[in-house]
Design brief:
This protein is an alpha+beta fold. It has 9 helices and 13 strands. The longest helix is centred in the first third of the chain and has 17 residues. Bound molecules: adenosine-2'-5'-diphosphate (A2P) and magnesium ion (3 copies).
Length: 290
C-alpha cells in the first residue's frame, strides 16, 4: 500500500493523470490503474492462490520490478495473531483492493482525501484492513513526514494512529462531497447535526471517525462498492466502531458477493450507539434503499 501510495504521488508530480470516464461521475486515472497493478502483482506473487478483487479489474502482468514488494512490516509481524486466523485456508480469504479511493478529489487537488485500501475478509466477514494515506501531512515542510499507514485486525487491535473518541455534547456527521443527492440530504437533516463534514473517499471518512473528528458517516446511496468499505470496516471494527448498511445490516465480503453496496453505508465511531443512528434514518430513505 505504501509503494502504491508513492506511485500515486509520482503520477501527480509528473502531471499526466490520463483521466478516463468509467461512468457518470466516475473517473479513473493512470494512478488508479498503476497503483492497482502494483498491489495485485505484489500480493499475487506472494500468495498465488489468494482471491483478490480490485476496483479497476486490472491484470498483474508486466509491472516494473520495483513495483513488486514482498517484504512485510516487521512491527506488525511482532504481534500475536489471534487464534481464529492461524489455520485459515486461503480459499476462505477474499482480498478487496481500492488502489485509490477518492479519485474525484485526487483530480481536483484535494490530496489528503486520497487513501489506498486493502481489505481482508475471512468467510465473508471484513476482519483485516490497511488504510494508507499517501498525502497525510502533505502541507508540512518536510517530505519525510508525508504519508501514513493505518491497520487493524478484528480480535487484535489497530496500529499506525492514535484512536480518539468523538466529542460528547454535539453531533458531527461526515458524508460525500461529490456524490450527494436529495435522499442523502434528507437523511442528514433528520439528525439535526451541529456540523456536516462533506469530504471525499470512504477511507478518508472512516479515518475521521477513527480520529474522533466525526460521530457517524451517513451515505444512504448506492455508489460505494465492497472495495470501498472492506478495509475501513475492518479497521473501524477492530477499534470498537461499526460499519453497516443504512438499516444496520452487515455486508458480506466473500468472492461471490455483488460488488455495489446497494443499501448504502452507515458507520459510527467507537463509543457511539450505532442502533440509535439506524433508528433516526427516515423511513422514506430506508424504503428507497431496501
Ligand atoms: N456514484 C459513484 N460512482 C462510482 N464510485 C463511487 C460513487 N459513489 C461513491 N463512489 C466511491 O466511493 C467513494 C466514497 O464516495 P464519496 O467520496 O462520494 O463519499 C468514492 O471515492 C468512490 O470511490 P473511488 O474514488 O475509489 O472510485
Ligand atoms: Mg473509482
Ligand atoms: Mg473507492
Ligand atoms: Mg478507487
Amino acid at each position: 500500500a505504501t509503494r502504491a501510495g508513492k506511485i500515486i504521488r509520482d503520477i501527480m508530480s509528473r502531471g499526466e493523470l490520463g483521466i478516463v470516464e468509467k461512468g457518470k461521475n466516475d473517473l479513473q486515472t493512470e494512478a488508479d490503474r498503476s497503483a492497482e497493478r502494483c498491489l495485485m502483482a505484489s500480493l499475487s506473487q506472494q500468495y498465488p492462490n489468494l482471491t483478490i478483487i480490485g476496483e479497476e479489474g486490472g491484470s498483474s502482468c508486466e509491472v516494473p520490478s520495483d513495483w513488486i514488494v514482498t517484504d512485510c512490516d516487521q512491527h506488525v509481524l511482532l504481534q500475536q495473531c489471534p487464534s481464529e486466523y492461524i489455520d485459515v485456508p486461503s480459499s476462505d480469504v477474499t482480498v478487496w483492493i481500492d488502489p485509490l479511493d477518492g479519485t474525484t478529489e485526487y483530480t481536483q487537488g484535494l490530496l489528503d482525501h486520497v487513501t489506498v485500501l486493502v481489505g481482508i475478509s475471512v468467510r465473508g466477514k471484513a476482519v483485516g484492513g490497511v488504510i494508507h494515506q499517501p498525502y497525510y501531512n502533505y502541507k508540512s515542510e518536510s517530505a519525510d513526514l508525508m504519508g501514513r499507514t493505518l491497520w487493524g485486525l478484528v480480535g487484535l487491535g489497530t496500529g499506525g494512529f492514535q484512536p480518539v473518541a468523538p466529542p460528547t455534547g454535539k453531533l458531527i456527521l461526515t458524508t460525500t462531497r461529490s456524490h450527494s443527492n436529495d435522499l442523502v440530504n434528507m437523511a442528514l437533516e433528520a439528525f439535526k447535526p451541529d456540523d456536516i463534514l462533506r469530504v471525499g473517499g470512504a477511507g478518508h471518512k472512516v479515518l475521521l471517525l477513527m480520529e474522533g473528528k466525526a460521530h457517524a458517516y451517513v451515505f444512504p446511496s448506492k455508489g460505494c462498492k465492497k472495495w470501498d468499505t472492506c478495509a475501513p470496516e475492518a479497521v473501524l471494527t477492530a477499534m470498537g466502531g461499526k460499519l453497516t448498511d443504512i438499516h444496520g445490516g452487515a455486508y458480506e465480503y466473500h468472492k461471490e458477493v455483488e460488488h455495489p453496496n446497494l443499501r448504502g453505508v452507515l458507520a459510527t465511531a467507537q463509543g457511539v450507539d450505532h442502533s440509535a443512528f439506524v433508528k433516526k434514518i427516515p423511513q422514506e430513505v430506508r424504503d428507497a434503499l431496501s
